[in-house]
Specification:
It contains 1 helix and 5 strands. By secondary structure, it is an alpha+beta fold. 6% of the residues are buried.
Length: 50
């Protein structure tokens, strides 16, 4: 699982697909798994980061 650092906080993310980028974020009560269906569908046409 890839991670990035932002302001001293370690953040996990997933990335798939190619083309124009779409970034999926959550409001803090969930995690990146809440975007599973959208992530897979969008990755067929776009670069998706969640």
């Amino acid at each position: 699982m890839p991670f990035t650092m932002s302001n001293g906080v370690r953040l996990a993310y997933d990335e798939a697909g190619t083309g124009p980028a779409v970034v999926l974020t959550h409001g803090g009560l969930g995690d990146r798994r809440m975007w599973e269906h959208q992530f897979r569908a969008l990755a067929e046409r776009c670069r998706v980061v969640r």
